[in-house]
């Protein structure tokens, strides 16, 4: 009987419905980012086809896909300032106006410039969201559920991507944009009911509000006093923005920041956004026997299911094991795509394996989505030291989107220089290097509080 009583007493501190509400509210914002990221794949063929209202040059087409990551970079930098001055919660709320303005500009576009402007506004919102969501969840969720609930933004983000693919199969490009604007409404409403993070409130000297926020998150049976003492011992961020950014370069902070930057780099140079942004075009170029729009939806389903699997197991098997599985899967599938496109270039008879690009891309997305997709963002919110969490997360987010922009914009040029098989071979080599990086440098954070992680990575000394 005593062991059973102990389990009942600990459970509320691990999971509460209020933490689930927080995760869902935040993740509906991530749903919007996924919808936005997938938009170009179904929209560009429609924009260039019978539903087109204007001519699009190949260079303009590349900017429709490539401009959003560049705007995300700006959003990531801006977000670092916003989460320090207006807080985590209200920075999430601030993403709503640019999202809605961007989608309405695209939906009502009569010239390509309006589409580009809309993509820039949406990109700004996505940059803000991808920076603040991991920080918000990292600071509100209990360590025992931080992995599973912390992956919910990626899960719903992939849900947004899948829904965009599905809607794009029967909606034209401007109706799809209006759908994107409508999907912004639910997260705006739900975010009104969740609190600011206790860590942010404590860093601003609002101890009473921080305690109320923690009680709301952990429930009345949670060990609030012990957690408040642990939070107070870190003293949160400094309110001085200049000294906060300067603290990033202190020796104690370099290791966690460099690990986060490394994960962001390898996430993008694995080539994922090439697959996401140009999914339909990849199948067309490959001469696949499967309808491109259907293939795109199937890839989106795989993406969603894989993230669902990762969400279910991450708090049991840990971050590093999932990263290993992810990386090895991507190496094998990228090599398969490289060989397929090499055969196509050499004129091999591939009529009997027209399904191979879909199979390889599907398993590639599955591999990416169980590890290198969600975990770099999750770990960004976990391993950044409290004193530099806002600016460091801002830099990591901006760096991620800079890498995204470079990879997306150079894909077409890479194909013209080294062909498709060469491009996929390059991404494969990057994944091999990433595996070495994870083995030797990435720590396991499963079940540890943010304060424990910080002490291990920084040595607990200034």
TrEMBL record:
Q: Name one GO molecular function term.
A: sugar transmembrane transporter activity
Q: Which GO terms describe its cellular component?
A: plasma membrane
Pfam families named among the record's database cross-references: Sugar_tr (PF00083)
Spell out the CDD domains in the cross-references: MFS_GLUT6_8_Class3_like (cd17358)
Q: Superkingdom, according to UniProt?
A: Eukaryota
Topology class, membrane: Multi-pass membrane protein
What are the Major facilitator superfamily (MFS) profile domain coordinates in residue numbering?
22-446
Q: List localization entries.
A: Cell membrane
UniProt keyword annotation of RNA-binding present:
no
Q: Does the keyword Transmembrane helix apply?
A: yes
Q: Which InterPro entries match?
A: MFS_dom, MFS_ERD6/Tret1-like, MFS_sugar_transport-like, MFS_trans_sf, MFS_Trehalose_Transporter, Sugar/inositol_transpt, Sugar_transporter_CS
Question: Where is it mainly found?
Answer: membrane
Q: Where are the transmembrane segments?
A: 20-42, 62-83, 90-112, 118-137, 149-168, 174-194, 257-278, 293-314, 321-343, 355-378, 390-412, 424-442
The UniProt keywords, alphabetically, are: Cell membrane, Glycoprotein, Membrane, Transmembrane, Transmembrane helix, Transport
Q: Which family does the entry's similarity section mention?
A: Belongs to the major facilitator superfamily. Sugar transporter (TC 2.A.1.1) family. Trehalose transporter subfamily.
Tell me the protein's name.
Answer: Facilitated trehalose transporter Tret1-like
Query: Which species is the source of this protein?
Result: Drosophila madeirensis
Traced from the root, the source organism's taxonomic lineage reads: Eukaryota, Metazoa, Ecdysozoa, Arthropoda, Hexapoda
């Amino acid at each position: 009987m005593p062991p059973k009583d102990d389990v009942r007493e600990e459970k509320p501190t691990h999971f509460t419905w209020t933490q689930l509400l927080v995760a869902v509210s935040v993740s509906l914002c991530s749903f919007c980012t996924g919808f936005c990221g997938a938009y170009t794949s179904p929209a560009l063929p429609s924009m260039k086809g019978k539903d087109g209202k204007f001519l699009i040059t190949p260079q303009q087409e590349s900017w429709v896909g490539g401009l959003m990551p560049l705007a995300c970079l700006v959003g990531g930098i801006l977000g670092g300032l916003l989460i320090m001055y207006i807080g985590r919660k209200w920075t999430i709320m601030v993403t709503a106006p640019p999202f809605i303005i961007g989608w309405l500009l695209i939906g009502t576009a009569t010239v390509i410039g309006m589409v580009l402007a809309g993509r820039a506004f949406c990109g700004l919102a996505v940059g803000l969201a991808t920076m603040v969501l991991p920080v918000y969840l990292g600071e509100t969720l209990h360590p025992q559920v931080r992995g599973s609930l912390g992956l919910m933004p990626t899960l719903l983000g992939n849900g947004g991507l899948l829904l965009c693919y599905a809607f794009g199969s029967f909606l034209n490009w401007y109706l799809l944009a209006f759908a994107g604007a409508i999907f912004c409404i639910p997260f705006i409403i739900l975010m009104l009911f969740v609190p600011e993070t206790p860590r942010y409130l404590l860093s601003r000297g609002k101890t009473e509000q921080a305690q109320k926020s923690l009680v709301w998150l952990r429930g009345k049976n949670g060990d609030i006093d012990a957690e408040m003492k642990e939070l107070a011992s870190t003293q949160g961020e400094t309110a001085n923005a200049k000294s906060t950014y300067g603290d990033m370069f202190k020796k104690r902070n370099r290791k966690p920041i460099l690990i986060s930057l490394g994960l962001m780099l390898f996430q993008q140079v694995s080539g994922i956004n090439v697959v996401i942004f140009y999914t339909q075009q990849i199948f067309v170029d490959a001469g696949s026997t499967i309808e491109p729009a259907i293939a795109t939806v199937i890839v989106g389903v795989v993406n969603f299911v894989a993230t669902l699997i990762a969400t279910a197991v991450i708090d049991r098997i840990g971050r590093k094991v999932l990263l290993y599985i992810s990386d090895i899967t991507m190496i094998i599938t990228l090599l398969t795509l490289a060989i397929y496109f090499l055969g196509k270039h050499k004129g091999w008879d591939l009529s009997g394996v027209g399904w191979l690009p879909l199979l390889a891309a599907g398993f590639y997305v599955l591999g990416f989505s169980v590890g290198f997709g969600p975990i770099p963002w999750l770990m960004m919110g976990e391993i950044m030291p409290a004193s530099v969490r806002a600016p460091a997360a801002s830099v990591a987010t901006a760096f991620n989107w800079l890498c995204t922009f470079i990879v997306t914009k150079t894909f077409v040029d890479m194909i013209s220089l080294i062909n498709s098989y060469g491009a996929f071979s390059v991404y494969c080599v990057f994944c091999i290097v990433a595996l070495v990086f994870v083995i030797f440098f990435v720590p396991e954070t499963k079940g540890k509080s943010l304060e424990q992680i910080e002490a291990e990575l920084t040595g607990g000394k200034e």
